[in-house]
Amino acid sequence: MNTSDRLIESTQELLWERGYVGTSPRAIQQRAGVGQGSMYHHFQGKPDLAAAALRRSGEQMRALAEQQLGGPGTAYQRIENYLQREREVLRGCRIGRMAQDPDVVADVELRAPVQETFDWLTGRLAEVIEDGRRAGELRPGAPAVELAQALVAVLQGGYVLARSAESEEPFHQAVRGALALLKSQLA
Amino acid sequence: MNTSDRLIESTQELLWERGYVGTSPRAIQQRAGVGQGSMYHHFQGKPDLAAAALRRSGEQMRALAEQQLGGPGTAYQRIENYLQREREVLRGCRIGRMAQDPDVVADVELRAPVQETFDWLTGRLAEVIEDGRRAGELRPGAPAVELAQALVAVLQGGYVLARSAESEEPFHQAVRGALALLKSQLA
Fold first, then answer.
1. Cβ contacts (< 8 Å) between B142 and chain A: which residues?
2. What keywords would UniProt list here (chains A, B) (predicted)?
3. CATH superfamily, domain at A51-183
4. Shortest CB distance from A149 goes to which of B114, B141, B173?
5. Cα distances (angstroms) measured from residue A28 to each of A9, A35, B81, B94, B147
6. Best-predicted range by mean pLDDT among A14-23, B94-103, B111-120?
């Protein structure tokens, strides 16, 4: 792995664990095994590097979601596969956790990859719901984008509840509850 | 307001805005207009004061929720009133945001009021769902606690999506989506 990739990967990990305010340039350099001069050769500073790390985390999250959402099965099955795929629940979401960081929300460069990832995910879930409606599998009803936002929110809120309880159980309960409600939309 | 209450209220505000790691004892003293000696007369330190602030925020959140969940109306209406009541969406949830803070999650005294608040809220929503089922208003189906966790997660995740977008709209969309799904449970 080249120096730039090592810096990005170390920043991805530290942002996930400690958030933006809790991640120092020094900690990034130490984890990447890279000197200060080398870091500033590749990146202008912490904001620049953090934006690159969040863009990469967003790409990786989209690729993972597409495995299930673009995979085989009915619309309901694709959504079920996505909601129930293996996750490191107690670590929380590396994208969603950034929304609690006031310095991220206030900086348009840092917030953009977070917002874009959720926009993509909501749009993709809404497409799958529309697919299911066109195929006569899911009943028409509320706007697909509202159901999609509710499903994305269940995952994001599920992480919050799991970390609060130091247990994965509330996350899995919330997902099962959401799937039970979605199942009642089957035609 | 006495000194102890001023310190607790200032800590509640700072934790909401900046999180635990972003809140210094000095900032608390400044906002409360209280000297360092006086703060350490009333509280052992930042962890002790933060735990008191989170307990009070939890009590206030429960009292607000009870206005709708224990109010008039059918089970569905009480839940709808609760999910749609006025909120400062872009500020996020002062309880849920703490779950992203690694120092809060790692400290049992700080995590306890967060977990207890969500346990109470999930239990109370499950009671309302059970009320509705006993009254023949809601159909039997998935365990009430799973539906309740999904609803709490929609709110918590809705805050995440709204802050990511710097717009209240994703929160309101997620709530409308969840209510549309819940409505399909009406008998």
1. 176-177, 180-181
2. DNA-binding, Transcription, Transcription regulation
3. Tetracycline Repressor, domain 2 (1.10.357.10)
4. B173
5. 9, 10, 46, 29, 41
6. B111-120
Put simply, the chain B residues between 143 and 162 with a CB less than 8 A from any chain A CB are 143, 145-161
Is the distance from CB of A118 to CB of A95 less than 8 angstroms? yes
Min Cα distance B43 → chain A (Å) is: 24
Contact A184 B185 (CB under 8 A): yes
Annotation: CATH topology of B56-183: Tetracycline Repressor; domain 2 (1.10.357)
Residues of A in contact with B153 (CB under 8 A): 153-158, 160-161, 170-171, 174, 178
Counting Cβ atoms within 10 Å, is residue A44 exposed (0-12), middle (13-18) or buried (19+)?
exposed
ipTM of the complex: 0.96
C-alpha to C-alpha distance for B97 and A20, rounded to whole angstroms: 14
Domain ranges of chain A: 51-183
Greatest C-alpha distance within chain A: 61
Predicted confidence at residue A22, as pLDDT, reads: 87
Over residues A48-93, the pLDDT tens digits come to: 999 999 999 999 999 999 999 999 999 999 999 999 999 999 999 9
